[in-house]
Amino acid sequence: MNKKILFFTTPAFGHINSTLPIIEKLINDGYKIFCYSNKEYKKAIEGIGAIFIEYKIKFNINDIEKYTSNFVELLKALTDLNHKAYELYIDEIDYSDVDLILYDSMCSFAKNLAYKKKKKSVCIETTLAYNLLVFLFSNMFWKSFKTFIRFRKDLIFNIKEEKEFRKIYKLPKLKVVDLFVNSGDKTIVLTPKEIQPFVKTFNKNFYFVGTTIRERLNKQNKEYKKRYRYFISLGSIYKLRVEDLKEIFKNNDLKDSKIAVIFNKDINIENVDIYKFVDQISFLKNVDIFINHGGLNSVYEAIYLNVKQISIPMQEEQRLTALICKHKKIGGYAKDYKKLNKEIKYVNKYNKNLSKYSKIMQSYDGTNLACKIIDKYINEGI
Asked: For residue 56, which of 109, 98, 95, 125 has the smallest C-alpha distance?
């Protein structure tokens, strides 16, 4: 009889895209997996052989991620979501034959479900891993500290609400770190240890397995023939405006270069091809310089494919990623569009160590490593 896994996803393209190769391999290895997600991901989930179940809660990642620059608002949004999900799924699901609860790191309700139903749990981090040291010594602390002071009443109320919720449902007592880290019995981080800040400060239940890019590359089915000097894609959540494009194209180096841009409108700009969507991992093979928003998927794909990059972050965790790339010389970091001139001028300098880290990234077999950890934990309990 196939062993059964419940997988609670964060319904956003980057999160889903990163985890599907792991789910597909587990299914091929004989596991039966039920994936909870939003209906726009039904085709992709069923396409790898998983059983799709649509969330009965309003799980709109765009609503949540618009608060990312304000941690108090983000915590409130996530707390409300996770309380509603826990109350719904604690009784609706039959857990008697479930062998493992697998969940994305934003889904802390799944961790609580596993605890309450006495089931093993594994968390998958599709971002960098966070602990107190990462938070304190990154760009996030001072900006967040000022936000906490400004919205301290809301924060205190949110903490009290979470404590009361845990008390009512007899869940573990709240620790401050629980607001930021939803680690399971095992936590699989889709990041190489060479890139993770303060990697040695995480406990032995954190596994830095690398990315799932290899499998996604092997499954690509689209080829792009045009070659571009620059490719500009600033993420699905942030909506690029015509005014922003005009600001970007004020850069002299861009005027005579062949450029591709992901944009939601058809506009006519000399030397610029507008795409509403591309298979990014395939598209990057024909790109010299990738201007992105600092999203971890985009950044890692550029590193993996040895493509020079410049990040213009939109949110705080994207700024951390961009700062790491700047520090390790695997990408430029522009605080805004007006700072692009310098980044473009010194793009080779800011990507000095790109080839080295590309080889490191390619040396990891994230999909197989993640599956081995999950399989061993289910079958041996260690």
From this structure: 109
Helices (H), 236-381: 242-248, 252-255, 280-283, 296-304, 316-328, 340-345, 347-350, 354-363, 366-380
* DSSP-derived 3-state class of residue 74: helix
The CATH number that domain 4-211+364-380 falls under is 3.40.50.2000
Q: How far is CA 347 from CA 231, 244, 255, in A?
A: 14, 21, 17
Tokens 């979470």, residue located: 162
Distances (CA, A) of 178 to 110, 183, 254: 13, 8, 45
**Intrachain domains 4-211+364-380 and 220-363 with the same fold:** yes
Burial class (CB in 10 A: 0-12, 13-18, 19+), 11: buried
Can you tell me which residue has the tokens 């629980």? 178
> Cβ–Cβ contacts within 10 Å for residue 22, how many?
26
CA distance 360 to 210: 9
The torsion angles phi and psi of 36, rounded to 5 degrees, stand at -90, 125
The radius of gyration computed from the CA coordinates of the chain, to the nearest angstrom, equals: 21
In this structure, which amino acid lies at residue 23? Answer: I
In angstroms, the CA 158 to CA 137 distance is 24
Residue range 110-168, pLDDT digits in tens: 999 999 999 999 999 988 898 878 877 665 555 556 666 676 777 787 788 889 999 99
Write down the residue that tokens 């794909």 correspond to.
301
Q: Is the pLDDT of residue 253 over 80?
A: no
Domain boundaries, the chain: 4-211+364-380, 220-363
Pairing mode of beta strands 51-54, 272-275: unpaired
Which architecture characterizes domain 220-363 according to CATH? 3-Layer(aba) Sandwich (3.40)
Please report how the helices 354-363 and 296-304 are oriented relative to each other, as an axis angle in degrees rounded to 10: 100
**Smallest Cα–Cα separation from 124: which of 180, 205, 187, 177?**
187
Report pLDDT digits (tens) over 69-97: 556 667 777 788 889 999 999 999 999 99
How far apart are alpha carbons 48 and 117 in whole angstroms?
A: 28
Burial call 254-286: b when 16+ CB within 10 Å, e when fewer = beeeebbbbbeeeeeeeebebeeeeebbbbbee
Query: Rounded to two decimals, what is the model's pTM?
Result: 0.90
